[in-house]
């Protein structure tokens, strides 16, 4: 189980985030407090608990400085149902497209499949055993003995049974050791209903409510098909079936909905793109419509999902946007009011970029080194070379477009292109990456401004 949010203090949450994100202290603090507040709320007396609404957050900052990364890491830490959505992908109710309520339905789907996964881990062992028995039944179909008159003893029956059960045990051993894996067997496979409903994909019908979907399932009853598969596949299919039988879906749904309502986090990206100034016609009207549709969800309302009603009152919303072309004050006032916490993320300095290259757990230098290590090639970066890479990235950011830490990806890719290409022939070598190496690989591109626009 992940570390639960209840155990982490704000300082610990920030420390966790520090493992992946450099700088951006303010944003880290804000999300840490928001997370801790939910734990505090849980410990309140009931009357008060329902009164405390989450303090939603807007993260403002240029592209590539860690907005999405912070939210993504936060969700892992929280072990909370989490979804990241782009505000721009929704359309106003009544227009063709996804309505904003679907974000809550998606979040619920996420929670349900997470809870289901946890539960299936619990029943894993039993499911495996049952699948094995089922598989043995298929391999050695139980024979039906001819009916005898009562009282008429069959002298051979006991012997038969014993030999049957010892054969079964022999087969069990063979199964376990994988000797039968490639053997073909015939089993009944349920045809997933999604496949049948798939024909409605894209028509908006996928989002139909429970009643409608029940209606459809009676029109298209669950189909079973006999299929020839290998024992290996059959085992997988049977395990899955047994697992589904063992899991109490009502319980899964109940826990999932509870989690969504109490701990869910929605990360609403690109919020700046639905803000606008002044004008009252064209696409702007629809954007404002989307903002209006978002209002009740953020405020607290009940959304119908295929698993039942979900209340959004305590879901935490974290919105993010660059706000280059617009300002948070261009959002409709009601929406601004529902995001009381504003945090600004800073543009990344050369120092930041230098640290981003090496420090985070998933740092680029670590990634490239590990990738090439699989080919037996060792990269040895000198500290000065790292500094040089950061400076180049910073320079290109200032000369062309500032794309933040993403610039490091393009620079590193170009820097290591030759090594990546020839790695299979360099097996066993250690390649020093020095300042000179960096300069020699990147010089041409740097000297030619037009070229760097395209390549870096
Ligand atoms: N402060 C940082 N520390 C470490 N890595 C970072 C930082 N900022 C960005 N990165 C890395 O840069 C990439 C892009 O970051 P991210 O997705 O968070 O950008 P963003 O701020 O959401 O930008 P956009 O506005 O374009 O969505 C990610 O791979 C991330 O790991
Ligand atoms: Mg982003």
Write up this protein.
The protein is α/β, with parallel strands linked by helices and 456 residues long. It folds into three domains: 196 residues, P-loop containing nucleotide triphosphate hydrolases (Rossmann fold); 118 residues, no CATH class; 97 residues, Helicase, Ruva Protein, domain 3, CATH 1.10.8.60. It has 19 helices and eleven strands. Strands 2-5-8-1-9 form a five-stranded parallel sheet, with helices on both faces. Strands 3-4 form a two-stranded antiparallel sheet. The model has no long low-confidence stretch (mean pLDDT 84).
Briefly say what this structure is.
This protein has about 450 residues and is α/β, with parallel strands linked by helices. It is built from 19 helices and eleven strands.
Short key terms for the protein model shown above:
binds adenosine-5'-triphosphate, alpha/beta, 11 strands, 3 domains, two-stranded antiparallel ribbon, binds magnesium ion, Helicase, Ruva Protein, domain 3, Rossmann fold, five-stranded parallel beta sheet, 12% strand, 456 residues, 19 helices
Question: Which spans have pLDDT < 50 for at least 5 consecutive residues?
Answer: none
Q: What small molecules are bound in this structure?
A: adenosine-5'-triphosphate, magnesium ion
Question: Could you give the order of the helices and strands?
Answer: HHHEHEHHEHHEHHEHEEEHEHHEHHHEHH
Structural class: alpha/beta
For this structure, the quaternary state is: single chain
Compute the number of helices: 19
Task: Kindly report the CATH topology of the largest domain.
Answer: Rossmann fold
CATH homologous superfamily classification of the largest domain:
P-loop containing nucleotide triphosphate hydrolases
Q: How far apart are the first and last residues' alpha carbons, in Å?
A: 41 Å
Mean pLDDT: 84
CATH class of the largest domain: Alpha Beta
Strand sequence of the main sheet, in spatial order?
2-5-8-1-9
What number of structural domains do the residues give?
A: 3
**Structural shape:** globular
Secondary structure: number of strands: 11
């Amino acid at each position: 189980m992940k570390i639960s949010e209840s155990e982490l203090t704000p300082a610990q949450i920030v420390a966790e985030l520090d493992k992946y994100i450099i700088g951006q202290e303010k944003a880290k603090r804000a999300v840490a407090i928001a997370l801790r507040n939910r734990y505090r709320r849980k410990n309140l007396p009931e009357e008060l608990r329902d009164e405390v609404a989450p303090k939603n957050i807007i993260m403002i900052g240029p592209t590539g400085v860690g907005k999405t990364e912070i939210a993504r890491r936060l969700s892992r830490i929280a072990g909370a149902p989490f979804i990241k959505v782009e505000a721009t992908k929704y359309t106003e109710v009544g227009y063709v497209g996804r309505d904003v309520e679907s974000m809550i339905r998606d979040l619920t789907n996420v929670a349900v499949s997470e809870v289901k996964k946890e539960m299936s881990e619990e029943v894993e062992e039993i499911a495996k055993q049952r699948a094995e028995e089922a598989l043995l039944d298929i391999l050695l179909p139980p024979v039906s003995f001819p009916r005898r008159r009562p009282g008429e003893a069959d002298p051979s029956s006991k012997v038969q049974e014993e030999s049957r059960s010892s054969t079964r045990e022999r087969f069990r051993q063979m199964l376990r050791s994988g000797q039968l894996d490639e053997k073909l067997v015939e089993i009944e496979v349920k045809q997933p209903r999604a496949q049948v409903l798939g024909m409605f994909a894209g028509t908006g019908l996928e989002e139909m409510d429970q009643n409608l979907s029940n209606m459809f399932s009676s029109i298209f009853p669950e189909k079973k098909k006999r299929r020839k598969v290998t024992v290996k596949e059959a085992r997988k299919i049977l395990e899955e079936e047994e697992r589904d039988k063992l899991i109490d879906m009502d319980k899964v749904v109940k826990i999932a909905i509870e989690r969504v309502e109490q701990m869910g986090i929605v990360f609403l990206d690109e919020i700046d793109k639905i803000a606008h100034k002044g004008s009252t016609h064209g696409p702007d009207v629809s954007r404002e419509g989307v903002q209006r549709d978002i209002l009740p969800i953020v405020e607290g309302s009940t959304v119908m999902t295929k698993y039942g009603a979900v209340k959004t009152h305590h879901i935490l919303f974290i919105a993010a946007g660059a706000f280059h072309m617009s300002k948070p004050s261009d959002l409709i006032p009601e929406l601004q009011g529902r995001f009381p916490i504003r945090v600004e993320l800073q543009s990344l300095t050369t120092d930041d970029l230098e640290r981003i290259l090496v420090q985070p757990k998933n740092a680029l230098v670590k990634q490239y080194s590990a990738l090439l290590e699989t080919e037996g090639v060792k990269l040895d970066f000198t500290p000065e070379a790292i500094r040089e890479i950061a400076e180049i990235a910073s320079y290109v950011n200032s000369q062309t477009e500032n794309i933040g830490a993403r610039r490091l990806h393009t620079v590193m890719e170009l820097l290591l292109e030759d090594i990546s290409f020839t790695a299979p022939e360099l097996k066993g070598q250690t390649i020093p990456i020095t300042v000179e190496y960096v300069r020699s690989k990147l010089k041409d591109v740097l000297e030619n401004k037009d070229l760097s626009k395209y390549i870096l």
